[in-house]
Write a structure and sequence with these properties.
CATH topology of one domain: Rossmann fold
Structural class: alpha+beta
CATH superfamily of one domain: Alpha/Beta hydrolase fold, catalytic domain
Oligomer: single chain
Helix content: 10-25%
Number of strands: 44
Low-confidence stretches: none
Number of helices: 11
Largest sheet: 8 strands, mixed
Length: 688
Amino acid sequence: MSESFPRLSARTRRFTLGVPRGFTISPDGSRVVFLRTRTGTDPVTCLWELDTDNHVERLVVDPRALDADEGDLPPEERARRERSREQAGGVVAYSTDAGVTTAAFALAGGLYVTQLASGATRRLDVPGAVIDPRLSPDGRNVAYVCEGSLRVQDLVSGEDRALATPEAPTVTYGLAEFIAAEEMDRMRGHWWSPGGDALLVERADEAPVRTWYVSDPANPDRPATAQRYPAAGTPNAVTELFVLGLDGSRVAVPFADEYLTTAAWDSHALSIVTMPRGQKALRLFEVDPATGASTLVREDTDPAWVDVVTGVPAHLDDGSLVWVASADGGNRLFVGDRAVTPPTLQVRAVLDVDHDSVLFSASGDPTEIQLWTWDGHSLLPVSTRSGVFSGRMAGGVGVLTEQSLDAEGVSTTVVRRDGVAIPIPSVAERPGLDLRVSLGRSGRRELATAVVLPSWYEPGSGRLPVLMDPYGGPHAQRVLNRRGGYLESQWFAEQGFAVVVADGRGTPGRGPEFERAVLNDLATPVLEDQIDALQGVAQQYPDDLDLGRVAIRGWSFGGYLAALAVLRRPDVFHAAVAGAPVTDWRLYDTCYTERYLGHPDEQPDVYDKSSLFGDAAKLERPLLLVHGLADDNVVAAHTLRLSSALLAAGRQHSVLPLSGVTHMTPQEVVAENLLLLQVDFLKRALGD
């Protein structure tokens, strides 16, 4: 008998195992290095290389052959994986030299270096557990973080030394602080100079950050884990920058803003990008590495907030700045001072700069993410079919990943300079679901909406109970033209629901005005839009949806939205499952929360309006709260405090605590049974 979908989804980490990722193209385009597990159920990630001349794929590093035990990862590495939502093990990240001849990676706290041509791998002698190793461009040295120190080892002589050592237990050198990793997509804290003779290094001091304690009630013999968590309105870590030379020199790089959003060091400039705590300005500086003096190159401002975009700053061969900013109602690509994309094309990220060409992702239709290039003269589409695309580009060679509703899984193709296409196979498992997904627009605002019906359902044969299945918050979309985004929704549909997924105001892909509609109110617009989408879909499917039986489920922001729905609109929503919900935004982190709601001391009414606590007495519908007790992102206090408020108001509800589970719920048994328990709860709650 074949495995059930919940079990298979759990074993395959939601069908992500076996999918190629983490691509690096050699400068001449002759080789592509990438990560992939051996099978769709194998959680151990290996390092591979594809020869683009003879189309031969070769296994370079299999962690099992290195006899590394990942059962005792250093806490900093566990935190890094949690921030990056990494669900696999093995070689989950690597760096290369500029010529892509050598790779370095951390495995079970050890430091390894591989010669890509031969596959010869050696473990280096280091004084402790290693985090984030990065090779110098010339391949002679590898920098890494160990016990808070930024260290460098010479790969020829074997000399290993600390360039910077923490002055206190709260200090680290070379690591991104919590806020940068969780909210700004900056996963690194050190950058090599192009010549390999110095590094730009972040010093982070968490001493000002308040300490929270995350305990495991299921194991009272274990002490609580102390965690520095910068909740809204409280102090952040203090970040500083230094240029550290291999000759022992140390040059401070002062900056005035609260946040370092990113840095880059190429042959044209050492660049840093900073943002004040209010997040209404983004400032790009060029730094003189010899003196640390900074020159302001560009400043973007917005009365609501500025967006941090990945992949910039970058430079063309002639030194022209590549940048992304909001202008004329759109998120636009700038080369130099000129916007080279129209405001109707929403630029998502810059993926690569190859000499004079820029590869970037963008959306015209918010359900599509397409690839484009700017070649110095004109815009050229790279992807030509409907779907969701990403990619890399170097040496005139491209790597394209494609997802769509028309094909299962992720397709990866290497395109050579002569146009020859070479597939990189995925070995991901097949979900075994017959998807029945319709994309469209619904409601007064023509919201992007997906309707997922059971594969066995005959239109007009009887009204189905409705399950709204949103995320609904900033920075994330559910309604995209890709099958992988609807697997769980389809499984819920097979249990007898008409599932509706809608992206309301605040979600990306439709431009700055649509995203900024949630300023000072994370509750009202997002809830209104779920109702608007539901009513619009009901008009399109008048004989198929039972609006007398409407449930809603979600995780993280989606969990917040689900609880919000039954508390404030019980006339529309009749049951909810709220997973890891934010219930009071004062308990969530500074950067995310203050971007949308400001400082809680300055706008307490705004926080009260978006909190769930004031609505506790209104609950009259079945509500299941689910939370991992080891969650260090949305801590369990959110659910526990809401539960206390509901109890004080005499409102019946259910709480499912998950011992030892983080925000990702990676454990197989937990992930599988969570789906089964949700279906059972929803069916009972709706009287089915």
